[in-house]
Design goal:
One of its GO terms (cellular component) is cytosol. Helices cover about 45% and strands about 15% of the residues.
């Protein structure tokens, strides 16, 4: 059985990721050497809030937490008798946050028998598996292998997670919420028309209506219900299939809509890692989540949500104000996370006569141009005033055709991503094969 486990690990080397949360580069190098034949060890050094979003983004097989009480290589000569650097407190906070946000993610403590306080802190934080940095690499591999085997026993089958697409409107009033509503409803229509037994009551698409002004997406989709984003976070522990399909607001076409609360001050009680935990839970129940962040102003929240997304669409138009806002938005994003290839440009209300071409905008801001949506303000406003979306009254309109093209690319990307990420999540199960 052990040979079979090793064989499975060796076959999937390039697909496996391990994350070590520590500032100690010496320990990171040692762990990297120990686990190198199984995959890639990534060292992360940020604070807890940033680490949570980063770990969600990286989707690792396992996370290692530093309970050694040693922060730098220079401290290795003598293990600190007192953890004056606060590394143990940081690891404890992160362990508890990860257990709450990603309960299925395996955690391993890294420490030293010469610093027993770290071992005790790890156990109190709920991390029972331990790698001693003074032990051999073989012992470290044995611990990791045992932890992955236990994880496989707890998770008998891989779980499909829905795709999260963030529409980041660079400012209010450029049509991001209108695009999000059309996108969500048209994807849901495809589900109901091509999904066999599915019907409009089977909601497989959710709109996170988080743009400003608040509630526009819910209004455009004529969704009924008042269960908002802050309330959803408060009820995270109660989330199951029944709550999702009975309590959450639903449009006549079957799109589930979760909007900002009427009083935006309630969002101050929503922690970033609880918001990420909600997104992760929702992805179990929906094939596609569309997050509208048009005009949203909390940069830390935006960075965390875009970091967890599968795709990030920056929505602008050709106006000078929007392009200035696009520059500022990219500066904020780059200051928090480097571009990881998920960002694409969507130019809305596009008309060649307005000046700068879409290709020029894309080149200027070094973004791949995903789509241009034609200037159809009159038609979109007219249909909205009738309580309809444009594809309901003019299915062959050029705007509708452009959104259809976006959906084609989105669903194609979903199939590719499902294959890519599915293998990594199969690894723990393969460890148990004989």
């Amino acid at each position: 059985m052990m040979n079979a486990r090793n064989k499975a690990l060796n076959e999937l080397t390039a697909l496996s990721r391990f994350v070590f949360c520590s500032r100690n580069s010496t320990q990171a190098e040692w762990l990297g050497a120990a686990l190198g034949k199984w995959g890639t060890l990534l060292q992360e050094k940020a604070d807890v809030a940033d680490l949570l979003s980063r770990i969600v983004e990286l989707n690792p097989l396992l996370v290692l937490l530093d309970f050694s009480g040693i922060e730098h290589a220079s401290d290795q000569a003598g293990v600190l008798a007192i953890d004056s650097l606060g590394t143990t407190a940081h690891a404890t906070e992160l362990a508890r946050a990860l257990s709450k946000t990603l309960p299925a993610l395996p955690l391993v403590a890294v420490g030293s028998m010469a610093f027993p306080e770290g071992t005790i802190a790890a156990l109190r934080a709920g991390v029972s598996d331990f790698i001693d940095v003074s032990a051999s690499e073989d012992e470290a591999r044995d611990v990791v292998q045992r932890v992955l085997a236990k994880a496989a026993a707890r998770a008998p089958a891989p779980v499909k997670r829905g795709q999260l697409v963030t529409l980041l409107g660079v400012r209010s009033g450029i049509g991001t919420s209108t695009l999000a509503a059309h996108l969500a409803d048209m994807i849901q229509q495809r589900n109901t028309s091509h999904g066999g037994k599915r019907n409009a009551a089977d909601s497989r698409v959710a709109l996170l209506d988080l743009g400003l002004p608040a509630g526009d997406g819910k209004l455009y989709l004529s969704a009924n219900g008042n269960f908002d984003f802050a309330e959803a976070v408060r009820n995270l522990r109660r989330f199951d299939e029944t709550l999702v399909h009975t309590a959450l607001p639903r449009s006549p076409g079957g799109v589930t809509v979760i909007s900002l609360p009427h009083s935006l001050s309630e969002m101050r009680t929503v922690s970033h890692h609880d918001a990420l935990a909600l997104l992760d839970r929702l992805r179990l129940y929906f094939d596609v989540l569309i997050a509208d962040l048009g005009g949203f102003t909390n940069h830390e929240f935006i960075a965390n949500l875009t970091g967890a997304a599968d795709q990030v669409w920056l929505v602008t138009d050709q106006s000078v104000g929007a392009l200035v806002s696009l520059a500022g938005t990219l500066q904020e994003l780059n200051g928090r996370h480097p571009d990881d290839g998920k960002r694409h440009l969507v130019v809305n209300r596009y008309d060649d006569r307005f000046g700068m071409a879409a290709s020029q905008i894309a080149e200027r801001f070094k973004l791949p141009l995903l789509a241009t949506l034609p200037e159809r303000t009159l038609k979109l406003t007219s249909s909205a005033n009738r309580g309809k979306l444009l594809h309901e009254v003019a299915p062959h309109d050029t705007y509708v055709k452009a959104v259809d093209g976006l959906i084609d690319g989105l669903l194609s990307h979903d199939e590719t991503a499902a294959h890519k990420h599915g293998v990594g999540r199969w690894l723990p199960k393969m460890l148990l094969r004989k």
